[in-house]
Amino acid sequence: MTDTQTMTDTHRITAIRHEDDDSGVTAVLSRIAADNQAGFARVNWETGYVRLAVLGDALVAAVAAVLAIYFRFGQTWDSPWNRNHLAIALLFPVGWVVMALLTGAYDSRCMFLGNDEYARILRAALWLTAIMAFASYMLNLNISRAYPLISIPMVVTLTLAHRYLLRRVLHRRWENGRLLRRIIVAGHEQAVWELTAQLRRERRHGMQVVGVCLPTESKLAKTMLGGAHGHPKVYGSLDVDEVANAVAASGSDTIIVLPCPEFGSSAVRRLAWKLERDEIDVILASALIDVTGDRTTIRPVVGLPLLHLEHAKLKGGSRLLKAAVDFCGGLLGTLVLLPFLAVLGLLIKLTPGGRGPVIFRQTRVGRNGVPFTLYKFRTMHVDAESRLQSLRAHNDHDGSLFKMREDPRITPIGRWLRKYSLDELPQLINVLKGEMSLVGPRPPLPREVAEYGFEMRRRLLVKPGLTGLWQVSGRSDLPWAEAVRLDVHYVENWSLWMDLLILVRTAGAVLKGTGAY
Q: What is the C-alpha R_g of the chain?
């Protein structure tokens, strides 16, 4: 039994004793304090987190405001022109925090995970720009047009960096088992088991399953009774009253209700009513997997909140926008990296294993199953393909992909190139030719595609990418099933914002050099 459970039980016993002494008010207060203990702990750290975000946003806004004056006007602080802008700089942090508040950038439901927090910060920047322009025009303020053009991008960059670092600190606490939300999961055994196992594997969600509620006839309930075999404790059946009691008994602050017949609309409503006094969060899980909120909308029909699933953004304007970004990014990357690419090619030719071409060409499968020639720096000896069959028994990867941690076919310079993914840079040519994208699923081999099932073929609906979710989530260390899931998730939920985040995260993954072999 955890310290929280022990303290909760102690408070609950104290409350009962007070009731025996006919001290009704004290009994009620004691019970509420006991039931809310875990919730108060969560609220405390969430409140502290939000306060740090507000303080940090105000600080970086002040820095951006002053630096914008310095970069625009230099060090002549005592001029009337600068004094006007210094007055504006004093209001700038307040305006920035207010805009962030109005756009929901301090909403705890979006601050700890996902991309919504960053999107709201960008919306705050757009609103602040519009308000500054409107105020300058209406009040005839003598503001340099260069000032917002410098200060707004700077405050956005600094705020995003500050929020990212703040989130990294929180995620590190979660990984160490601290500040986790205490969760009760209610549903049928298979779904409960899968969710519990996933949350245990991935602490980055900040949730700890402390108990479950299962059907009375569940066989799994008997094996998990009392938390045996390392499983969470079974606190009761799917009866609404038992579930509500389970939340109180476990000291949980959140309950996740999985889809099941026992929890129809009326049962869910009754459960929410029972838990609202203690401010317990009720989360209803849908049957959708790996679908982001951008593709779902809740629309009430005859009193029922129906979840509508929109089609993936794979056609029309979205595809044209992605193609334009790919071409511009590919062209810029090629021009900037051209001298570096020439140096890498020279190293490949002059180091051991240099016999053979610098560029390795291989047939891969692109969008809609169309084959194309992929370009990479050669990292293996020229006889690598002929030696593949003799090495298949030593495959360190599951699924269709062949990977060896100590592949004898790789040259010394090739091992270094692979560690930092530098061998992939010639694929910028594929991007310029329109065969690949900057971000997308991993480009598969024809023999891999031949083994694809229905779900895997979703990967072929978009162009393969120079980088992708697989690149920033573990690279070659990922199990095959997880790599497929990430690729399908990308296809189903693509957005330009997701591409930008993946490109930023790619830099960190490449510099670490882990998971590549």
A: 28
